[in-house]
Specification:
Blueprint (H helix, E strand, L loop, with lengths): L3 H22 L4 H31 L8 H24 L6 H43 L14
Helix pairs in contact: 1-2, 1-4, 2-3, 2-4, 3-4
Length: 155
């Protein structure tokens, strides 16, 4: 990983693409939509674990602590998880009528991601540098999939 900003912004884009694929397929191909959503769900959960377990503590160390911008991000993560589960419920029920739940999630994710990409990630890059980013990537790779890989009845 060259920088936190590049890596995590690219992951945001990847996740946005998966959610768009779910939205495109949900009314016509539930199985394919469910696969896209499952990958999105697990990817978003992993992304949050990476941030909360690795990035945020690295940023907080010797700095603003948990009362700074990472506190806002953690609070938004809780809101994101709630909205994510509302969509997940629709997917589990094979209910394509998820437009409102998806729109609510997309709205929150858009604002959240913008704050991370414009403010937090550059601040983390400045603080930890390329060496810290490489260490963060190693730590992220060491997190077991069980932390984020459950979906749709535990599968």
């Amino acid at each position: 990983m060259d920088s936190v900003s590049q890596f995590f912004s690219a992951d945001h884009d990847r996740l946005d693409g998966l959610l768009a694929e779910y939205r495109r397929l949900k009314a016509t191909d539930h199985a394919a939509a469910k696969r896209a959503f499952k990958e999105f769900l697990q990817g978003l959960k992993r992304h949050i674990v990476w941030e909360e377990d690795i990035l945020f503590p690295a940023f907080e160390e010797g700095g603003p602590g948990e009362g700074g911008p990472t506190a806002v991000m953690r609070s938004e993560h809780r809101q994101i998880k709630t909205r994510l589960e509302a969509v997940h419920d629709k997917v589990r029920e094979a209910d394509p009528d998820s437009d409102d739940a998806v729109a609510s999630l997309v709205e929150l994710l858009g604002a959240h991601n913008m704050k991370e990409e414009r403010i937090l990630y550059p601040a983390i890059d400045e603080k930890i540098g390329a060496e810290g980013a490489a260490e963060a990537k190693k730590a992220m790779d060491a997190i077991p999939a069980e932390r984020y890989a459950q979906c749709c009845g535990g599968h």
